[in-house]
Amino acid sequence: MGEKSETVRFGILGCAEIARKVARAIGLAPNASLCAVASRSKEKAEKFAAENGFPASVRVYGSYDEVLDDPSVDAVYVPLPTTLHVRWAVMAASKKKHVLLEKPVALDVVHLDQILQVAQSNGVQFMDGTMWLHHPRTAHIHRFFSATSTNSIGPIHFIHSTATMPASPEFLENNIRVKPELDGLGALGDLAWHCIGASLWAKGYQLPTTVTALPDATRNDAGVILSITASLLWDQPNQTLATIHCSFLSHISMDLAICGRDGSVHLRDFVIPYQETSASFDLTFGAKFVDLHIGWNVRPEEVHVANQLPQEALMVQEFSRLVANIRDCGLRPLNKWPEISRKTQLVVDAVKKSLELGCKPICL
């Protein structure tokens, strides 16, 4: 995991559990290398580096500022609690460090806009840490949404997604995602980010007309959302309804169903594939019930998509490619990724507002 020649050199701000996964991804990405890691104490950073087998070339710091002041660091990965994102992402961007920011990217779009404005004015690339968007399966599925494709599922009418996990008592008591002073959005930020993002992705990032939280939300004693269901409605160019359910209280599920006029796509592992080296989805066209409705005329086709690198390494690789284009070729940052993050944040905000207003529909 040492520095490779002509790579984008990463520093990591914080030693969260997800940082272990992304540090590994940096090591796997051919155009990236890890050169620095920091925690609030040098002892904790040294322990993190030792536990993850970082080579001696990786510099270990006892403060985040030291990473940002390291001239050899091109980009930072920020897995800190959401309440700290504005401070450290803004500081990183102001020091010309490109920012890969863990999701949820902010507590609301006002905070996110502060980050994006500084990133834009300093010419640095911004991307959030949504890994599944970078899996080749995602691009493969997207072909079936095109109206010009001969294999289009047709106009999308219904999207359903879930992201649930059975949190342990220890998680529900102590994890940062249930603490209002650290990650106040709870399951809405941590899990619904994926479901909202999948709905927007399927709709070509057109914002929904209205967003409505359902009245089944569960909060902990501190008011943090542990479970939530919501609907997203588009009325143009054709009516589409998306339902999402996200919870720390249910058995693990990562379902995504996208139903069009002529076909449908189903995944059971859309956030984290069952395997690192391949992923699949079910594709169905022209399904009908047979005579007497005692069965179906077709079974779904299981489509397999292989990938040489895990999706988190593909994310790092794409981010690093964009950073290298800016650093080495003088290109401008790609606006696609900040725009995706901002639209996702807008819908997260709308779900939260709807819930606070007694589940009234919020117009976007």
Automatic annotation (TrEMBL):
Residues annotated as domain Gfo/Idh/MocA-like oxidoreductase N-terminal: 8-127
UniProt GO MF annotations: nucleotide binding
Domain GFO/IDH/MocA-like oxidoreductase, residue spans: 151-265
Transmembrane segments: none
Domain of life of the native organism: Eukaryota
UniProt xrefs under InterPro entries: Gfo/Idh/MocA-like_OxRdtase_N, GFO_IDH_MocA-like_dom, NAD(P)-bd_dom_sf
Homology family: Belongs to the Gfo/Idh/MocA family.
Protein name per UniProt: Gfo/Idh/MocA-like oxidoreductase N-terminal domain-containing protein
Organism classification: Eukaryota, Viridiplantae, Streptophyta, Embryophyta, Tracheophyta
